[in-house]
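User: I'll paste a sequence; please echo it back and then give the predicted structure.

Assistant: Echoing your sequence first, then the prediction.
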Amino acid sequence: MKRLLLATTKNFFYRQELVKGGYSVTEYNLPLSADHIKEIEGLEPFHAFITEADEELIKTNGPLFDALRDKGNVLCLSGRVDSELKKFLLDHGISNLLQNPRAGLIISYVRIMGQKQSGQYGSMAILDDNDAVKKVLGNIIERFGYDPVFIASVEELFGSAMNSSVRFVLVNLGAPSLDLNGLVRKFYASSYSSAVPVIVYKDMREGLYVHELVGGLNRMTRYILGLDELFSFLVDILFKKELISLVASLRNSSDFDNISSYADEAVSRIFFMHEKSIFNQADILNEKNFEKLFGLSRTLEKTILKALGLRWLKMDMNKKNISTAGRGG
């Protein structure tokens, strides 16, 4: 039986559904005393830790989130998410958050959190040494079926990490181990320079430096993203890729191109539009196709669940406000 650690102000509201879902639940009531936080530090890792996060709780129980670093997947429940709370959670490597969820939805999301798709769609090479950032990136990337490959140097990137499965190279400009000139030189000379996008990013609280904006960086990439922009970009593009692939399959299985009028017209109008062929249309209710539609509906629900707890990372992004590597257009 999988074990959950539950620490909220209303455990009673969630407990029954969690137990009914087959989990063994260990409970603490918020706010926690220093002794309880120390007790949690000594516990074995759990399948997931479910807690609440808001401005008041992170002030009174901030050390709790330090204690959770190695205790398993962390799921935060919250109402309003402001910039201060977002910064706090990301600084602690926490990327799963549900806003005002019903108890049953938590169960579904906890199950999604525990599923790994083992790089079925490829990998992403990541040069970064910040543990919190790596944890957030790893969660987003694995959630959508890609394998995060963390590297420590430019030499490692071109020595073993770069191969035909790599879909993105993500580079933290603030990583102490980064040889920026070496990265630009080796990447531009490699066979992957036109096939694999390089996404460079940095914690913009540290600022951008002149040496990061010169030396040929613009030959390799167009934009320099902040951390929040990077997380938003990845959630957006990976969710869209998975969703639109499913929509395309659904479209094919429903014979949409041939009967698209069904979407907008009244059934009487549909009859007259298709009167000559109404009995010769594709049978989308045959057993094989119906099973496929049923499977697609379940997969579609799962895909939406994957993004549910990451949606808070999505932000409005305008090209005009994103830093560039000295490259226009």
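The chain has a mean pLDDT of 90. The first strand starts at residue 2 and ends at 8.
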